[in-house]
Amino acid sequence: MADLRFEGKNNQKKGVSIFSSEVITTSATMNDTLFTLPANSLVTAVYAVVTTGSGSATNTVDVKVGTTVVANEVIVGVVGVASGTVAKTFFPTGGSVTVVAGADAPGTTGKVKIVIVYIETELTTGTYTD
């Protein structure tokens, strides 16, 4: 059996990256580009920090990387932190991250911040785990 601990970047520590948007005003037609996810990234969590509800307790947004929905039906109608249904997904080429109106489109009064947690699998901290 081969010892692969120090082959390539196998045993180098990876860091967790976190993106947080500025405050976004919701709308029924929202389609806002937030940032570009780096290549070889694994999205592990998505949150909406709702500081002002959008009108109805059932209003939702979706967060996408390219055309892939990574957070589905995140409720933005109620003040608090919401995550919706998050699909942990690997993106070998990265992609443009957008927030769009969900199935129950939000009103124009909502204020939210979108937080995305991801791991850049090819980026290392330079230290080893052994």
What features would you highlight for this structure?
mainly beta; 130 residues; six-stranded antiparallel β-sheet; Jelly Rolls
Describe this structure in words.
By secondary structure, the protein is mainly β. The chain has one domain: Jelly Rolls (Sandwich). 0% of the residues lie in helices and 59% in strands. It is built from no helices and eleven strands. Strands 1, 2, 4, 7, 9 and 11 form a six-stranded antiparallel β-sheet that branches. The chain has a five-stranded antiparallel β-sheet with strand order 3-10-5-6-8, with no helix packed on it. The model has no long low-confidence stretch (mean pLDDT 92).
Outline the biggest β-sheet: 6 strands, antiparallel
CATH class: Mainly Beta
Give average pLDDT, whole number.
92
Unreliable segments (pLDDT under 50, ≥5 consecutive)?
none
Q: What is the count of structural domains?
A: 1
Helix fraction by DSSP (H/I, runs of at least 4): under 10%
User: What coarse outline follows from CA principal-axis ratios?
Assistant: elongated
